[in-house]
Predict the 3D structure of the following.
Amino acid sequence: MIELRQDRNSHQNTVSETDARIKVTLAVFAILVTSLIPVGQWWIYLCLWVLTSVLGIILRIDIYKLVKRSLLVLPFCISTIPLVFRSPVDFWLPIENWMPGINLAGLYQALSIIIKSIISVQIAALLIMTTPFGAIMAALRAFGIPKVLISVMTMMWRYLEVILDEARRMMQARAARSTCLAMDNRKTGGNLFFRATVTGGMAGSLFIHSLERSERVYQAMLARGYDGDPREDLMGEIPSISRSIGIIGFSLLTGILFLAYWLR
Amino acid sequence: MITSKLPMHIPDGFLNLVVSIVLWVISIAVIAIALKRVQSQMNERTVPLMGVMAAAIFAGQMLNFPVSGGTSGHLLGAAIATILLGPWAAIVTITSVVATQAIVFQDGGLIALGANLFNMAVVGVAVSYAVYKLFKKLIKSEKASVLVSGFIAAWTSIFIASLACALELALSGTISVNIAVPAMGGIHAVIGIGEGLITVGALVFVLSTRKDLLLGEEKTTATGNRGILVGGSIITMTLAILSPLASSHPDGLEWVADQKGFLEAARDSFYNIIPDYVFPGIQSPTVATIAAGIIGSVIVFGLAYGVASLRQAKQQTVEK
Amino acid sequence: MAAAIEVSNLVYTYSDDMLFHQDVSFGIEEGEKVALVGANGAGKSTLLYQLNGIFQGKGLVRIQGLELNQHTLNHIRALVGLVFEIPDDQLFSPTVYDDVAFGPRYQNLPRDVVDQRVKQALAQVHMEKYARQAPLHLSQGEKKRAAIATVLSMQPSILLLDEPTNGLDRRSRRLLMALLHELPQTMLIATHDLEMALQITSRTLLMDGGRIVADGKTDEILRNEDLLLAHGL
């Protein structure tokens, strides 16, 4: 299932300790820059990818984990295939009996989309792998996201592991009763309708339990003086180190963007 | 780690920036309204109720059942959330879930988040609500009306959300519309059945334990919810009609977009707008080079300044 | 005759490479009722979960002579009924009847057989009247009994129970203990409830730090204060 314990790198260095507001801004800006790079700027893509990888190394991120996350875009990448095989055809693939025709512009477009997508995932992964969820929430609050929404998401995060655990145990309990009598593994499991509705029952059970739990949480909050207005710890000044890192990052990214257009 | 198994969380890089921004604006507006409505309905209960239920929906999406050949069916939960919590609360909870999936698990992009929120939290919820309310009125028997309406609402929410997704990808030039709509629509028409069945299973459970949550509610739609009812109906019909229309007349879609200069503008201008901005009307290559040089220097200077101030700041921290 | 449960050299590690069970070996005969005792974290639940394949460790597990592996998993789960600690996790259907029927239905048994199994199981736990009730509305004790019924309907010959008397009031506890005493199945019961173990089980396995540190008559082990103290109880 999911591991919620965040992949915190054990080493904390200057870069990873940057103020969350700067990190979030840079990450989003980096993804924006990535999406603005024109099609076919292979050297720039390489540049960006090398940068994120270097950053990953500086931050002592498990590169394997980083790569694994990039693979998330694969299902959507399949959707770019039609871009490649369309008319006008630039050259034909010499595959027997088939002869698919490739449109070069389409190929470049498809590859660009895939590469940019992978780079974007890596940037986002770097952010979460070096910043606790709570810090990101605080940064979003500082950017003006309503207090209520931030509190809701923080509360969700608090109870996510507990409720995920409950879901996991339910599935284990179901697995323990999912059996077959004979050893020939003949088809068991009832029909689709049965399996789907049982799963629905499990969801319903999860929701009702959670509803009741939320009532208990509410009572506990009231008992500790909650009045509907979440108190917040405002983030202080952005430390100068973080400011500097922000400037460096912003300049670097802007530079890359200009370079991309200049080379066009 | 793919947290949701439905192919509806669009990653970054697939959507045109203009499309993304427009959808961000719409999503933010709707979510802001939802937050206000929820707070006025639930007061101090808002945070614990929304927070814990968001966790429940997130966890609910992890439940699965084997379909065939290694694939499994999952829940999105927009419909069941809408039916149990009401449309505004559903928007808030699904927003929390989708945003967390993007931020923490990279399931869906960060810039594309606006579009994903639009598809799942706004369209998914609005459509569920409209369809549920409609069919509930049509069917007499209380229990049957909840279950049948629930199934149809769940199926429709998935199907229509997928159409929205397809149109967004088509408008961005990523997939041509006459592939996107049938493909996304077709796949999700099937996936929607799973969503429908799971929703029914959940509703049966709730009916047997907490009937009060489902039956005997408002006979007429509360004024606050009328907006969503109307909005949901409009979205459903628009997308249902527009998609096959666009799909069979791909040129038609381009024509429409061209008429507003939108598509062309969206496709190329962002690629062109910056150079023009940077070198406004500069014809001479020499001047262009000088201009580039100046800009380059500014960037390098910025970098150098940044590094220097970093060093200085570090020293200051050490000295403290 | 093959032993009911046979475990040799079981080793289990957590995903973050923490060695958990080391070299656990024991055997349980047909009809034996055995208590699995130990402090929290000693490894009782994890051990139970390995006996029906929910967790997969290294080493040999044999149920009635049949080796536990990927192929035999589903079949063994029909022989070994696991009753989880939190009844709410196992009662995920709208009515008690549906929950108890899940096992047989999953086995694709004909409807009348399913019905018969459910009635039998409910009768065994003395909950026939609760068939149409929603599990959520039951008391803690009733939920525990219902959970046992959900497993009994598959007619297992072995029962694994994880903290069955946890959280029960005096009366419910007494009823549950009487039930466990009545049921004919071979049992391995993980528990903190030493009094229950003394009353129901003939043999006790004492666990500490992932190892079995004592294996003998319940009477002897559970009355040995020094032994218990030495291992965290």
About this structure: The longest strand of chain B covers residues 65-68. The first helix of chain B runs from residue 17 to 42.
